[in-house]
Amino acid sequence: MKLIDHSRVLNHMKPRVSFNIFFRSLFLLATLFGLLVLGILLYRIISQGLPYFNFQFLQNLPSRNPEQAGVYTALIGSIWLMAVVAPVSLILGVGTAIFLEEYAKKNAITTFIQINISNLAGVPSIVFGLLGLTVFVRAFALGSSVLAAGLTMSLLVLPVIIVASQEAIRSVPKELRHASYGLGATKWQTILRVVLPAAIPGILTGGILALSRAIGETAPLVVLGLPLFLAFLPRSVFDIFTVLPMQIFNWTSRPQEEFQALAAAGIMVLLILLLLLNTIAVLIRNRYQRRY
Amino acid sequence: MSETQTQKSVKGNNDTKLVYKTNGLNLWYGENHALKDIQLNVVENEVTAIIGPSGCGKSTYIKTLNRMIELIPGVKVTGEIVYRGRNILDKSYPVEELRTKVGMVFQKPNPFPKSIYENVVYGPRIHGIRDKKILDQIVEKSLRGAAIWDEVKDRLNTNAYGLSGGQQQRLCIARCMAIEPDVILMDEPTSALDPISTLKVEELLQELKKNFSIIIVTHNMQQAARISDKTAFFLNGEVIEFSETDKIFSNPSDKRTEDYITGRFG
Amino acid sequence: MGDENVNHSIQDLISKKFKKKRAGFSFERLVPILLFITALISVLTTIGIVLTLIFETITFFTRVSIVEFLTAKKWFPFSETHGSYGILPLVTGTLKVTGIAILVAVPIGIASAIYLSEYATEKTKKIIKPILEVLAGIPTIVYGYFALTFVTPILRNVMPGLEIFNALSPGIVIGIMIIPMIASLSEDAMSSVPNSIREGALGLGSTKFEVAFKVVLPSALSGIIASIVLAVSRAIGETMIVTVAGGSTPTLTWDVTRSIQTMTAYIVQVSQGDVGYGTTVYYSIYAVGMTLFLFTLIMNFIAQFVSRRFREEY
């Protein structure tokens, strides 16, 4: 007794196969859409910004006159910001990761810290701005300074570094640790001399990812009250300053075409900075790549 | 009905009963020549066992028979495999049609993460059968055929992952039978099972061969001797010997076959 | 013989050092405490955010009633005498933009995920995934610039009725921004479906499309839903794209062609202006921030719940 009519099954085959081919193309198109947008975006920025993008642009102060305007203060400001965010977020992030991976017992507190970190990663950046405004700018009376912005940004990118460092630490094989313990090393010696060196590529990659995020962010800095327009450089971390995304935001919001072209040129500077950072990340990854 | 079928398969004019005819099949994984000039014929309603040490190409060969091998990147195949008169290695042969006629049971049970019922009706459904009554009939028939009906009839709607390994494998056999294939390929179907489950699957094979042509890869020689009509011995990608199972195990004509069967290597 | 002597002296050296270090051993005990303190910073950050929002929001509610905040249909804070603080228009703006973004990102993101996990070769994957990562790493202000100077003019050519600032353009661009997020998280979920299950389906004569839709998608559903929920949360919290291209007119309408204001854009607008510390407007950004925080918090909890509760065990 046959329950299946095989001639019907065969008739049904053709539309199914064509369906598959049709959807395959559709899925491919969807995938290419992202690439297309990236292409258009870059083309648009370069074609608009190139006329303004030159050495003068990097050295000039912002100005009302588009021909003389430059990103000098903003670029230096972004570098100041990185100088604060990098050490602070790295120390806090790696410290937390070591604690969670090496020392913490599997208890309610650890679980809570872990859940808290993943929730923190989902908090909108502008809310971190409100925290920074209340705590650093007002309560600590730091004003719209490099330090206030740097600390706020460090907290913002903290989850990224913690998660990346945890993964890096976790991927160090147990055997390496055991070898160190077997020689009579203490826990901290083992972590410092065996685990961390082995985990460094992962940690630094995560750190640079976090740093990229920090120098591209705008929203929290607006809330902290960073000026959109500043004609002098900070001399210490307590001075007021501005950063590239703020300068780009300022130019983008102006209706005149010249300023929008300036915004494009500013974006080129920002993207080049990000590209440099990511190149460093790739180099580090290749340089320290270890095989176990 | 089963009586007449077994009788049919005993002897007759072989040409009409030929299911698979493999001719000069060569296969490479990149640089590695995994199958060398394979010649092998499979006859209807017989169990053909393929034995050999691991890495001899037996799994590769059975996966070529339904072109599952294409899933592995970097595979190159030459020669021909004629199934019911058509060369399946010809790219114009729709692979979906081939796999509808040639079912496969895998090494490890791989039920879908769905209910038992949904697992069985998956095949019929994709082939356009929607009638609930027919689907219900198919489910009962297939599960009975796979000797698992009594164990699961009261929980058809529970997740297949709640079954034991042996039950899962029999469910996979039922899933395969549900589209009433012509041939069933089995790639070491009992290698992941405990002895009792293995026994149940073997008993099931004895029943299945009344209705299907079966090609089974096994690393277990006793299993091949117990269940198959013909046996092919593979070594280093070549067919060393292929004949009636009784002959292979009692009076092999090649020294290497004898060495393997008597446990001198492998 | 000589070897034994050397061994002895090394062991002696070590044991001497060991005795000296005894005092320093408390350092071993100090380290976990120091590390615990760094771990507490992340908890303190959350507590800081919650307390900041709660205290300043309470101050706000001493001046504006919570009923007005939740039910009034107008958001018009800058008038000394006729100020109106109804959050609904801001929420509407946020939801409109988020809705458009999801309509763009979900089909494209999931289609890309299916392509990458079910059809693409390893080689193609190796090229496409980094490009998606680049797309995800572009600063939002750049997307804002793109929305205002490129997408909006194109849309206005097609739809003459579209205002310069509108919900459509930033919605589409946010959608583009979250495509990589949905694509990569969904792809992770689909790739974790074991290959043996795919082979089972292919062995029954399924096309790859059937494998994707009838076997892989249902199995990976929890991961896919979680990725969408997280993307919604991202879209709700997105600030610069809507600030630059969305406008600053809070309106209670579902019309996507008109100028809007989202919760985030309002916070930016107030921060940019010279609103005095301690004014009602100043406190209003915390109340809006609180609302925003609650929205995203709920989304994040849903995402975590879905991916934990419905995880498939293979």
From TrEMBL, chain B:
Keywords, comma-separated and alphabetical = ATP-binding, Cell membrane, Membrane, Nucleotide-binding, Phosphate transport, Translocase, Transport
Identify the InterPro entries for this entry.
AAA+_ATPase, ABC_transporter-like_ATP-bd, ABC_transporter-like_CS, P-loop_NTPase, PstB-like
The compartments listed are: Cell inner membrane
One family from Pfam that matches here is: ABC_tran
Query: Which biological process terms from the Gene Ontology are attached to this UniProt entry?
Result: phosphate ion transmembrane transport
Q: Which PROSITE patterns match?
A: ABC_TRANSPORTER_1, ABC_TRANSPORTER_2
Regarding the membrane, this protein is recorded as: Peripheral membrane protein
What is the name attached to this protein's record? Answer: Phosphate ABC transporter ATP-binding protein
Tell me which species this is from. Peribacillus deserti
